[in-house]
Design brief:
heterodimer; B: 59 residues; mainly alpha; 88% helix
Chain lengths: 234, 59
């Protein structure tokens, strides 16, 4: 785990706990996925991609929700801490959306016969990924960093509109992607062992996301310290 | 469909998951290390300058 002599010790303790928890949790997830859950009869072994695919997109949705809330707060009262928080979660959201897109493509090849199809679910998810990549790149395109952060916050608010569209796309349009089997009104349509494993993976990926976000925010805090040191004359 | 078919796709999906997560983790680790080294160097430089100035003032 990362050692920080700059960070206070309770913070380091929390970071270490989250990091070890995420690592042990990931190993536990592999055991549940490959040993505990049964093989799906129709799709076979490749169906086990489902657990990381679903946990990843859940984390991406949650990350972008936090970006949305932090962006509103930033637009109401701009602060460096809110901007750091939003940017860190946006980056994690992009990482998890990348995992979702790649794992979905790999799962799709043997089941649909193609890695990619321009259907509603896949296209809106790719759009989601692009929106938050633009969000992350926007401040570096602007001469005035403050204005860049404000524009990024606007993207963080408007971009979130795509999250419910991604989720509902399989109901609103005809797609290759199956209907939601966990987040639907009738409750999860899964055997208990699969359902517990899905829940476990979501919790573990969330712990991992929180750990990575704290590390990401630490970089921005250190950069701010560096800028302060450089700007103050001796 | 044979239930153990497509194991290579399963392996590829999990391998890519671990590569992305560990790749991102090592990227963050490196960034933290680089910026921290710069902060430490600057703080050391400032401290040395302050000590040198104090010595000049007292002498």
């Amino acid at each position: 785990m990362l050692r920080s002599k700059h960070a206070s010790s309770p913070r380091r303790w929390v970071d270490d706990l989250l990091g070890v928890g995420a690592l042990v949790g990931m190993v536990g997830a592999l055991w549940l996925i490959f040993v505990y859950t049964p093989l799906e009869l129709v799709q076979g072994a490749v169906q086990k991609v489902f657990y990381i695919h679903l946990a990843s997109i859940w984390n991406a949705y949650a990350s972008f929700l936090l970006v949305f809330v932090a962006s509103i707060l930033y637009l109401r009262r701009p602060s460096a801490a809110t901007d750091r928080f939003a940017r860190a979660w946006a980056e994690i959201g992009v990482v998890f959306t990348t995992i979702t897109l790649i794992s979905g493509a790999i799962w799709g090849k043997p089941i649909w016969g193609t890695y990619w199809s321009w259907d509603a679910r896949l296209t809106t998810t790719l759009l989601l990924w692009l929106i938050y990549v633009v969000y992350l790149m926007l401040p570096s395109f602007m001469d005035d960093p403050e204005r860049g952060r404000r524009y990024a916050a606007v993207v963080g608010v408007i971009g979130f509109v795509d999250v419910p569209i991604v989720h509902m796309s399989v109901r609103w349009w005809r797609t290759l992607h199956p209907d939601p089997i966990v987040a639907n009104l009738e409750g999860p349509d899964l055997p208990a062992s699969m359902w517990y494993t899905v829940l476990y993976c979501i919790v573990v990926f969330t712990v991992l996301a929180v750990y990575l976000v704290r590390q990401r925010m630490q970089i921005d805090e250190l950069r701010a310290t560096l800028a302060r040191l450089r700007s103050t004359a001796v | 469909m044979d239930t153990l078919q497509n194991l290579d796709y399963l392996f590829a999906a999990y391998a890519i998951l671990w590569v992305i997560i560990f790749g991102y983790f090592f990227y963050l680790t490196r960034q933290i290390g680089d910026v921290r080294r710069e902060v430490d160097a600057l703080q050391r430089e400032r401290a040395e300058t302050t000590v040198a100035r104090n010595d000049e003032t007292t002498s």
